[in-house]
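Could you show me some protein's one-letter sequence and the numbers that encode its backbone in two labelled lines?

___
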Amino acid sequence: MQPLAILAALAKPLPMYYSILHKTRYRYSALVTENVTEVRMQPRSEGVQRCLTFKLTTSPFARIYNYRDSYGNVVHHFDIPAPHRTTTITAESLVILPPLPSLPEALSIDTWAQLDAIVREEDHWDFLNPSHFVRSTPLLIRLAEELNVMRHTDPLSLLRLLNERMYTTFGYDLNHTEVDSPIDLALEARKGVCQDFAHIMIALVRSLGIPCRYVSGYLFHRIEDNDRSSQDATHAWVEALLPNLGWVGFDPTNNLIAGDRHIRTAVGRDYADVPPTRGVFKGQAESILEVGVKVVPTELPIPEEEVDPRPTGVTPATIEDAEAIEQAQQQQQ
């Protein structure tokens, strides 16, 4: 190999390998039974991202099954029939993520016509219409007017600008919203977490006739990046469909274009489609949810003892009888 070729090869960005350990623990105030749970924690193998290995274990032990939902997410599910006071779910992943192709600074203004043709000819209904957490409200309409959300430039430039304005308009606050909070709570206070920023941006983007979807996953944090989102939790951002570029990721929490630090786990209309855990149980108990996440660049798995799940909140109210159901969803931060 010639010296110049060697230098070019050395200068080429290398793929990133990430080892991810995600531990979730539910503590119950009394014995529960028939604990049926769904888990969406396996990183997607799509585009340039590949999930090389994935392992899911539970305590108490359960036989785990899986299927793919309508959006291509791998969903694991299990049942723990015996009485128990805690449930621990441990997911271990190894992912390779090469650098994403560079985006152009802008697109032609004619791209709007191409985009409208895609919307007419393809089925993107789910990502263009209101969903459980994404819908128009008077506060959202007021924000759209304030941010000048209209087709005044090409789609890519408009999305870049909207991503930046979401970042500067909203503060990051772990304690202001809950997992099931409507967007108006964050809109009124102008603060929330990544889940709120994603829902608000999706609503604004869909109003422009651009298919837009919610992405759940992980973000690798580096000190020099000064990310606002929490490094010991899952993350959320959005993807918009653009002609000739496909699904392009935007992270309004951190004012980023999704790149080789964003590890995609699941996509859907909004958070209701992609919670990392969702479950029901029989019993009369309150539950405390604890979560620990660690993402490191490596080719080796993370030792399990390095991650200690931390409390994220209490599920209020008492479950009354054997047919009552607890919906336990993990908040993304």
